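Note to self: the last two entries modelled the partners one at a time, which told us nothing about the interface. This time every component goes in together.
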Amino acid sequence: MNHYPDPPNPQPDGGTTALDAPPIEILNEDILKPELLAQNAPGLETLVKLLNQPALARVYIYICYWGPVSPPEVMDELDLSKSTAYEYVDRLVKLGFIERNESTRPQQLTAEPVILVEQHVPIIITPTVLHAFALKEIDEDVEYFVDRHGIGKLVAALRGAGLHYAGKMTQRMIANEIDVRDTEAMMIIYALVPALAVGREHDPYFDYLFPDVQDEMDLPDLEEQETTPAQPDREE
Amino acid sequence: MDRDSPLSAEKDVIVDANIFIAIGDPSNPQFSQFRRAVQEADVMLKLPQRVIGELGGRDTTRVQAALDEGWAEIIEAPDPTDGDAVAASDIARRTIADKTEKPEHEVEKTDTILAGLAIQYIRNRTTPGVIVLTDDKPAREGIQNAITVQGYTDSIQVYGLSDIIGDEPGGSLRLI
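The predicted structure of the combined assembly is written out below.
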């Protein structure tokens, strides 16, 4: 019995340009309650805003990992102008991504880590993924890769890079699987090291992306490596 | 920073593309460090045509800079009739498949030919040794195992980028 609706836009090779349709049974009256849909809609909208703006994602990730931090720290550590730093902070507060505590001086900013997992497509958004995307602002290799291949392949490359550093895939296997040139895969695998090295220590959802190899990656030890900014304090 | 570089003018140095990608743009400190190590050893790096593959975007610059500056040259793929070289590539393929827990057909041929090429170089040329440079760990283990099994450990060595320029990248690692 076929529970899957016919795929739209069939291609000559039998494939489809649409994402794989998930089984219809995963939706039911309870999930489809207008009240529930209304509650979740703003979360999705705001997450999409982050995924469209690497500069905003960068400020969010900095506050999430390094927080509590003050706006001047955001400005200094991310090398932003004062007006840009305050503008991004204001926007993130309005979107509900960060909390501003104004009872102290200077005010302190904190952010909860976000996670979005959609297993059927699949889509996975975690702080490590947002960090990888935010690197577009400061790393020309990441910028090149995202402009050329999009954020979906960036997530695939991030997962591939983790597997590579765990010794489970060669760089050329990853190039093959995600369908980019060998040297492009090599380039992005090196460029994503900061997202993996920091995520391993500070992303509470790191094991969602790497349930199999999270402890096996051969990455720079942030305790010994000189970094900019200095690595975040460990969670108490 | 002085350190003993394994590179020497008496040895042929065969390089995988990832070394050029790992050192970054010519403006990157690691690029300069690597170039200095190669030039001080008076070595012409040999880059097999097949391992560069198809270059196209930002990645082109790094390989092209080394070629233009004259410290790297492109060489042909290995001779498919050299039995020892073919056997070495086969061993490398099996080792990589084993390490990565993947079927052998998923191992890219390009990752295995460096093993065959190294052995072919040792046999066909007058140089007393060959060095293979690759920064891909599973591939490196595959090549190393092929060399060990075929009995060439005295004349062929396999190294990664950190063996040439050290573990500390030039300057501070930008985290975000």
